[in-house]
Amino acid sequence: MQRIVVLAGGIGGARFLRGLKSAVPDAEITVIGNTGDDIHLFGLKVCPDLDTVMYTLGGGIHEEQGWGRSDETFAVKEELAAYGVGPEWFGLGDRDFATHIVRTQMTGAGYPLSAVTEALCDRWQPGVRLLPMTDDRVETHVLVDDPDGGGRKAVHFQEYWVRLRASVPAHAIIPVGAEEAKPAPGVLEALAAADVVLFPPSNPVVSVGTILAVPGVREAVAASKAPVVGLSPIVGDAPVRGMADKVLAAVGVESTAAAVARHYGSDLIDGWLVDTVDAGAVPEVEAAGIRCRAVPLMMTDVEATARMAAEALALAEEVRA
Amino acid sequence: MQRIVVLAGGIGGARFLRGLKSAVPDAEITVIGNTGDDIHLFGLKVCPDLDTVMYTLGGGIHEEQGWGRSDETFAVKEELAAYGVGPEWFGLGDRDFATHIVRTQMTGAGYPLSAVTEALCDRWQPGVRLLPMTDDRVETHVLVDDPDGGGRKAVHFQEYWVRLRASVPAHAIIPVGAEEAKPAPGVLEALAAADVVLFPPSNPVVSVGTILAVPGVREAVAASKAPVVGLSPIVGDAPVRGMADKVLAAVGVESTAAAVARHYGSDLIDGWLVDTVDAGAVPEVEAAGIRCRAVPLMMTDVEATARMAAEALALAEEVRA
C-alpha cells in the first residue's frame, strides 16, 4: 500500500485531498495539517484548517463556501452579538461551535490536540490520518500597516485574512511560537515512512510554510528519500483562491508558479506541477533543479482534482525512476 | 424606596420575582441566587437558577417550560451527541449555550461569577440586582441508592433532579464546598440594608437551604432587623412544582406547609404564608412563633403572583408593627 503524506492548509488542501482519495482510494494517506491559523474565540479553541479537512473529507463541509458546516444555523453567534461579545467578523455556526466546544473541553482536560483531532475524526471518518503539525500553540501573526493609522502592528492571521480581507499591506508573516514547537506525535514518523510527499496547492506561506516552520519538519521533508512533489497555487500569476499573492509579497516572493517553486527550492521539492497556462514557466523551474510539468490545475470538481493528484503521483514516479 | 432582598432558586423564585416587581415596581430588589445547582457541562459553566431568574425577568424565558430560552434550537446539542459527547439528559439549547460560552470565557479570564452575572444582566436588564450567593464553587450533591444497584452514591443535584427525575430515594443533600464558601460581594450588605427579606416559594432544601448554607448568610438573615417572610412551596401537602417533597424527606422534614415553616424556624423567619387550602396549619405555625396567614398561593399568572407578593409585604408590615 502506497504511503502518501500531504502537508495541507484549509480549503485548497482539503479539496486536493478529496481528489487524491478518489485517485488512489487504496493509498494510506497521512495529512499534516496547518495549525498556525488556529485562534481562540469566545474562550474556545478553533482550528480552521484541521476542521476544513475533516469536514470536507467527512462529508460535513459547506460546499459552496468551502469552510464551515453544511445546513448551518447561527443562533449562538446572534446571541453572542446580543451580549456585545465579539469578534463578529468570524462566522462560527451552531454546528461548528459544537466541534470547538468538544475540542476545548478535551484540551482543558489535558488531551493534546493530536488526541483531540483523532477523537473528532472518529466521528467524521475522513479516510485519512489527520495530524496537526504540532500539539504546541503556534499562531501566525501578520505585521500590517495599522488600519487605524499610525505605524504598524501585528495582528492574528485570521484578523488579517477574515476581518481585513488582506486589504492592508503585509510586511511580515510571523509564526509565533513555531520556534519552540515540536512536531506532533506521528509527524516525523509519517514523513520518514512516506513513499511520496505532496504539497497541495495550499498557501505556500501561511499554510505549507507554517508547517515547514515547525523545527524538524522541513528537515524531515528535505531528508526524505521519497519524491516530494508540489502543485502550484498560482495560476496565470494570480492565486486560484484566496490572497496568497499578498502574503507572498510579504516574504518577497513573486506571485508566479515558478517563483513559488524556487521559494520551496530543490532541496525541499523534487517535482512541481504548474497549470497549462503557465507552461512557459517549466524551463525556469527545471533550471532550478526541480522536475516540472504543465497540466490543468483547476480543482473544478472531484474528477478534475483526482486527475491533478494522479499527475502529481505520476511526476513523483518519474522523479523516483 | 423600599429595599427588598429575595433568596431565590429557579423557576418558582423567578416567577415570584416577576409578581413582586409587578406589585411594587418602585422597590429596589436584590436577589440572592442559588448557585448550588450550577454544573460544568461540556467544559462550560452553567448556572441554571441565575439564568432562569435572568431570562424570566429579562423576557427571554421559555414560558411553558419555565427554564431555558424561548425560540430555542438545538443544533449544538445534536452535534455533541453526534460526537458521542454527553450528557444528553441536560437540555441546552443554542441560545442558552451562548450564555454559558460568555460566562465561561469571562470566568476563564478571571472574573468572579458576580461580575459575570452583572455583565450578563447588562443585556437582560432584569430590573433587579441579581447576585450569586457566592463566587466560590458550591455543588449540591445528593446521596442516593445507586440506580445501577449495590449501595449508595452521591450524584450531582442535576443528575438526581433531571436525569433520575428524583425517582430514587435521596438520603442526604450535601452542598459540597459550601462550608468554605464566602458570600459574594454585596450579599451581606444587601441583607444588612434590607427593609424586608422574602423567601419565595422556592425549594426550601436545595434552593433557599443552599443559599443559607453559605457561612454568614443564615446569620445575616437571622440578625436582620427587617421582617423576614416566606411563602410555602407546599400546598395541600404536595409541592406546587418540582419534587421538593423528595428532598424534604431526605432532610427529615414532612411535606406540609407547617413543617417547612418550622424547618426554617422562628429564629430565621418572622412571617409565613400558607395557601388557603392549608388554613388549618395557621395555628401550628403561629405556635412555633411565626406569624402566619392563609392566602391563595398558586402562581397561575403575573397578577395572582403579584397578589401573593403584596400579601407577603403586608405580612412583613404586620410583623414590623
Question: Class by helix and strand content of chain A?
Answer: alpha/beta
General form of chain A:
globular
Radius of gyration of chain A equals: 19 Å
| Low-pLDDT residue intervals, each spanning 5 or more residues of chain A | none
Largest interface, Cβ cutoff 8 Å: A-B, 31 and 31 residues
- How many strands appear in the DSSP assignment of chain A? 14
The CATH architecture of chain A can be given as: 3-Layer(aba) Sandwich
Q: What is the CATH third-level topology name of chain A?
A: Rossmann fold
Number of helices of chain A: 13
Strand content of chain A: 15-25%
> What is the averaged pLDDT score of chain A?
95
> Which CATH class of chain A applies here?
Alpha Beta
Task: Going across the biggest sheet of chain A, name each strand in turn.
Answer: 5-2-1-9-10-13-14
The CATH superfamily label of chain A reads CofD-like domains
Biggest sheet character of chain A: 7 strands, parallel
What oligomeric state do the depicted chains represent? homodimer
Tell me roughly what share of residues is in helical segments of chain A.
25-40%
Distance between the termini of chain A: 19 Å
Question: SSE order of chain A, as H and E?
Answer: EHEEEHHHHEEEHEHEHHEEEHHEHEH
Number of domain units of chain A:
1
How does this model look, in words?
The structure is a homodimer of 321-residue chains. Chain A is of the alpha/beta class. Chain A has one domain: Rossmann fold (3-Layer(aba) Sandwich), CATH 3.40.50.10680. Chain A is 39% helix and 19% strand. Chain A is built from 13 helices and 14 strands. Chain A has helices at 11-23, 48-58, 75-82, 94-108, 113-124, 157-163, 187-193, 208-212, 217-223, 244-250, 257-264, 282-287, 302-320, and strands at 3-8, 28-33, 39-41, 44-46, 129-132, 139-145, 152-156, 170-176, 196-199, 228-231, 234-235, 238-239, 271-274, 291-294. In chain A, the strands form 4 sheets. In chain A, strands 5-2-1-9-10-13-14 form a 7-stranded parallel beta sheet, with helices on both faces. In chain A, strands 7-6-8 form a 3-stranded antiparallel beta sheet. The first copy, chain A, has a two-stranded antiparallel ribbon with strand order 3-4. In chain A, a hairpin with a 6-residue loop joins strand 6 and strand 7. Chain A starts with a strand and ends with a helix. The model of chain A has no long low-confidence stretch (mean pLDDT 95). The A-B interface holds A 42-44, 72-73, 75-80, 82-85, 93-95, 97-99, 101-102, 104-105, 108-109, 119-120, 122-123 and B 42-44, 72-73, 75-80, 82-85, 93-95, 97-99, 101-102, 104-105, 108-109, 119-120, 122-123. Chains A, B: Homodimer. Chains A, B: Its EC number is 2.7.8.28. Chains A, B: Pfam families: CofD. Chains A, B: This is Phosphoenolpyruvate transferase.
